[in-house]
């Protein structure tokens, strides 16, 4: 393809993309999981319930 | 804190709801029509505007972008305002979003009917509409981010994360996949070619599913399911983890659409790995949805809205388990190119997307119009009709897929394909197509019931266009207090920063998948013998794209024995370097065409055959379900655009000589004359400027550069005549008749009368190569490659050919 320059010519070392990608994912996953786990329960409860207490005129909440 | 007064914009929500209903029913009606077309080709209506190839993109785009798209906007515009306690950021942007999107839909519908298409699935729209989509999408995103900025609630609820991911994901996908160079106002070529185009396209296709059909619906689920059930979402912590995992992983999985195809092994392996990993975050969403209803299942019994939401979430769980399974290579060889994929996507579209939209509307419309639903009973009827429809749709598709796969790979004890002719497998699954059409019709009935119910509801109530509300202004909490706030909690109140993080998560997967394919040269080993398309072949290829042939025919022979025996040499990555766009296809309703131009191969047909077949496929084989294309014989090739096409191809790097654009039309006419002469020799008068000529040229190009034509000496070489004894028992003749009517009748006619002079009669006394049993046996076994007759010794056993010889001589020729 003329329109795109040949930045990389070779396939050697292609695996580095996936190793880096997977490492980023695994690291973030672990960090986010731990941080989320440690989040105070009442905080989560408050957020969860916030969308239900929006003071709407509930003429048909049972639906 | 003093309350601020503001007004919710309910009118825009109402508009989007109306648009969803109107386009939804159009999309479903077109769906039923194309289902009927596959069951009975007469429903192609004999018009070029209504063939399956043109209406299938209309159906998919109408459902995805018109029905689902408008439903997303309706759901987002309502829930964002409520969640953030503010009016949408800018009314003008809302209007641009609404009217712009409807304009796109109308333009899209028109362009599909007129055959204006890029030939890339779910991205078929041409470049001017692509630009329009970009502008309207940016208006949507700006409106959304603006609303987040002017909000009156500190915390940004989970539903909105999904909306943001949707905006960002679709923006990246649409832009990257739509790089194309215009040839004219209505025609462009993508800058990617062959395998690169395939990777980019299926990265887009796969993630269009992710970011248009999944993430916005998870967002809707996070708002409307708790609202309809009047219970908080099961786990807020789970929502954080599955959000980030899902948006990160989805972008990598695209190549699972191209398994066993002409793609580097590493790309296929990558797609499979990430597809399997995707099960976890997907099921995180399903579990969070279903467990929200724990202890509230009694409500599901009474509420149709909840029933639809539950079925939606369940269908999501099924599809997101099935999808990764389908990306395992051993499973994929069954599901790819068969109806399995069609069943899979309809479980998702009818169950998950349909379920969430219907459930949302049954809750939202009464709310918006300040009244009760007109009839809960009708809504329940809709639910049951719709659920039954999904089953009636999906089960026949799975059945058909397995049946066809088993037939395609079956061998006789002699080592020949049991069903060498593709149409035998199609005829077998045709009953399934009738049941599928019934399923689709039932779904349509349910949809009509819902429209009636919702319109009655709307008529009974009133929608306040600007609904007054009050909330205290937002006071910024400022910097993060590490003791009181986790990073994610802090991030949840930083809309723009949150968007940037989401963008990075999305971009990593996209970059890792696409950049190596585009930039690394050794991914595309070049094949010396592969030549660019001649101007005539290029014109034919563009007609192939215009008529949507790729919706039924693949151009990709996978490396399985049962495919190479049936079609010819397997496809190689270097074959496609000049293919802007690639045309590998995704479903074989007809046979693969990658080797249609290989003379002496099992797929080769001569010009006269193609002419007759395009004019009336059912005349050639009454079991065929292909539409007729008689207009190809009357419409002219557009010569004016040829030089521009050549120049565009040159810009893309196709090695036509300098200044070839001026020579191209002359070359085109020269090549066309040869085909016209060839047809004339078969008794068919067709001017060289007709579109049919270009189509034939393109068919004869397919695979030609890979497999050299047999030298004239080879075709003339006669093997020893083999003495045979005719087999005239009723069983033998019956077996022969079966083969004759499915294979031989295509050219020689069911009674053996042929279509002289192109296809000789077998009933008269004129024989090109003699009519002794040995000579007829030889004609069948060795074929007549120059005239387009295949050497059947590669497809049938000696006994079968002897039976055929006997049938021809004793039954047809009554010797």
Could you walk me through the main structural features you see in this protein, from its secondary elements to its overall organization?
The complex is a heterodimer of chains A (63) and B (815). Chain A is 54% helix and 0% strand. With 63 residues, chain A is mainly α. The radius of gyration of chain A is 24 Å and the shape is elongated. Chain B is an all-alpha fold. Among the domains of chain B are: 293-474, Cytochrome c oxidase-like, subunit I domain (Cytochrome C Oxidase, Chain A, Up-down Bundle), CATH 1.20.210; 535-709, Orthogonal Bundle (Cytochrome Bc1 Complex, Chain D, domain 2); 721-812, Cytochrome c-like domain (Cytochrome Bc1 Complex, Chain D, domain 2). The N and C termini of chain B lie far apart (105 Å). The mean pLDDT of chain B is 92.
Query: What kind of sheet is the major sheet of chain B?
Result: 2 strands, antiparallel
Broad shape of chain A: elongated
- Please report the distance between the alpha carbons of the first and last residues of chain A: 58 Å
Biggest interface between chains = A-B, 43 and 60 residues
Strand content of chain B: under 5%
- Derived from helix and strand composition plus strand pairing, the structural class of chain B reads mainly alpha
Mean pLDDT score of chain B: 92
**Quaternary arrangement of the chains shown?**
heterodimer
Termini separation of chain B comes to: 105 Å
Structural class of chain A: mainly alpha
Characterize the main sheet of chain A: none
* Count of runs of 4 or more consecutive helical residues of chain B: 29
Average the pLDDT over all residues of chain A and give the rounded result: 70
Low-confidence stretches of chain B: none
């Amino acid at each position: 393809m003329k329109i795109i320059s040949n930045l990389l010519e070779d396939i050697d070392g292609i695996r580095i993309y996936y190793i880096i990608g997977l490492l980023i994912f695994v690291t973030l996953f672990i960090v986010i999981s731990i941080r989320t786990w440690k989040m105070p329960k009442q905080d989560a409860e408050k957020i969860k319930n916030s969308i239900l207490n929006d003071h709407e005129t509930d003429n048909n909440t049972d639906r | 804190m003093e309350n601020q007064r503001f007004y919710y914009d309910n009118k825009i929500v109402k508009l989007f709801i109306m648009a969803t209903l109107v386009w939804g029913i159009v999309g479903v009606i077109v769906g039923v029509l194309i289902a009927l077309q596959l069951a009975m080709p007469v429903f192609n209506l004999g018009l070029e505007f209504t063939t399956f190839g043109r209406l299938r993109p209309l159906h998919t785009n109408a459902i995805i972008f018109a029905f689902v798209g408008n439903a997303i906007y309706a759901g987002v515009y309502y829930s964002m305002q409520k969640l953030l306690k503010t009016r949408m950021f800018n009314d003008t942007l809302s209007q641009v979003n609404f009217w712009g999107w409807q304009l796109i839909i109308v333009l899209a519908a028109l362009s599909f009917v007129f055959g204006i298409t890029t030939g890339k699935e779910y991205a078929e729209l041409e470049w001017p509409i692509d630009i329009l989509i970009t502008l309207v999408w940016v208006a949507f995103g700006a409106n959304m981010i603006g609303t987040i900025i002017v909000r009156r609630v500190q915390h940004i609820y989970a539903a909105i994360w999904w909306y943001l991911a949707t905006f960002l994901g679709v923006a990246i996908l649409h832009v990257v996949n739509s790089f194309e160079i215009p040839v004219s106002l209505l025609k462009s070529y993508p800058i990617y070619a062959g395998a690169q185009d395939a990777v980019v396209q299926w990265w887009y296709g796969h993630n269009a599913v992710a970011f248009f059909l999944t993430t916005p619906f998870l967002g809707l689920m996070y708002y409307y399911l708790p609202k309809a059930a009047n219970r908080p979402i099961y786990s807020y912590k789970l929502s954080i983890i599955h959000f980030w995992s899902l948006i990160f992983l989805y972008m990598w999985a695209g190549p699972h659409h191209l398994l066993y195809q002409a793609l580097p092994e590493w790309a296929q392996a990558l797609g499979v790995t990430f597809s399997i990993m995707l099960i976890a975050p997907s099921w995180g969403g399903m579990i969070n949805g279903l467990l929200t209803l724990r202890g509230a299942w009694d409500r599901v019994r009474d509420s149709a809205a909840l029933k639809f939401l539950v079925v939606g979430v369940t269908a999501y769980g099924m599809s997101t388990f099935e999808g990764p399974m389908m990306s395992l290579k051993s499973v994929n060889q069954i599901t790819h190119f068969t109806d399995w994929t069609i069943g899979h996507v309809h479980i998702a579209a009818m169950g998950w997307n349909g379920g969430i939209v219907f459930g949302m509307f049954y809750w939202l419309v009464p709310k918006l119009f300040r009244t009760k639903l007109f009839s809960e009973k009708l809504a329940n009827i809709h639910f049951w009709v719709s659920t039954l429809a999904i089953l009636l749709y999906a089960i026949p598709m799975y059945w058909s897929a397995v049946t066809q796969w088993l037939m395609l790979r079956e061998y006789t004890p002699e080592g020949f394909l049991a069903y060498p002719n593709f149409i035998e497998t199609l005829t077998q699954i045709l009953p399934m197509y009738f049941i599928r059409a019934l399923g689709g019709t039932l779904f349509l009935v349910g949809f009509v019931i819902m429209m009636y119910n919702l319109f009655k509801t709307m008529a009974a109530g009133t929608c306040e266009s600007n609904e007054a509300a009050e909330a205290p202004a937002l006071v910024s909490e400022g910097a993060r207090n590490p003791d009181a706030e986790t990073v994610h909690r802090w991030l949840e109140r930083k809309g723009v920063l949150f968007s940037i993080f989401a963008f990075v998560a999305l971009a990593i997967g996209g970059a890792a998948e696409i950049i190596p394919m585009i930039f690394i040269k050794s991914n595309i080993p070049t094949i010396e013998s592969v030549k660019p398309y001649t101007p005539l072949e290029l014109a034919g290829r563009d007609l192939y794209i215009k008529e949507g042939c790729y919706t039924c025919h693949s151009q990709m022979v996978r490396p399985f024995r049962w495919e190479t025996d049936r079609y010819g040499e397997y496809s190689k990555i270097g074959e496609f370097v000049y293919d802007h766009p690639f045309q590998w296809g995704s479903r074989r309703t007809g046979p693969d065409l990658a080797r249609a131009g290989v003379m002496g191969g099992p797929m080769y047909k001569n010009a006269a055959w193609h002419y007759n077949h395009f004019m009336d496929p059912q005349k050639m084989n009454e079991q065929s379900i292909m539409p007729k294309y008689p207009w190809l014989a009357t419409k002219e090739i557009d010569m004016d655009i040829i030089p521009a096409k050549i120049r565009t191809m040159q810009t893309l790097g196709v090695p036509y000589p300098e200044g070839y654009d001026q020579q191209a039309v002359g070359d085109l006419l020269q090549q066309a004359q040869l085909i016209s002469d060839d047809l004339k020799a078969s008794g068919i008068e067709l001017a060289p400027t007709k579109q049919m000529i270009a189509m034939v040229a393109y068919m004869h190009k397919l695979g030609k550069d890979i497999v050299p034509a047999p030298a004239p000496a080879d075709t003339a070489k006669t093997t020893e005549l083999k003495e045979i004894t005719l087999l005239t028992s009723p069983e033998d003749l019956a077996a022969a008749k079966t083969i004759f009517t499915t294979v031989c009748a295509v050219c020689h006619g069911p009674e053996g009368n042929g279509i002289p002079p192109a296809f000789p009669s077998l009933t008269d006394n004129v024989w090109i190569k003699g009519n002794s049993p040995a000579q007829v046996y030889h004609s069948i076994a060795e074929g007549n490659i120059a005239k387009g007759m295949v050497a059947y010794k590669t497809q049938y056993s000696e006994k079968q050919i002897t039976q055929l010889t006997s049938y021809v001589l004793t039954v047809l020729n009554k010797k």
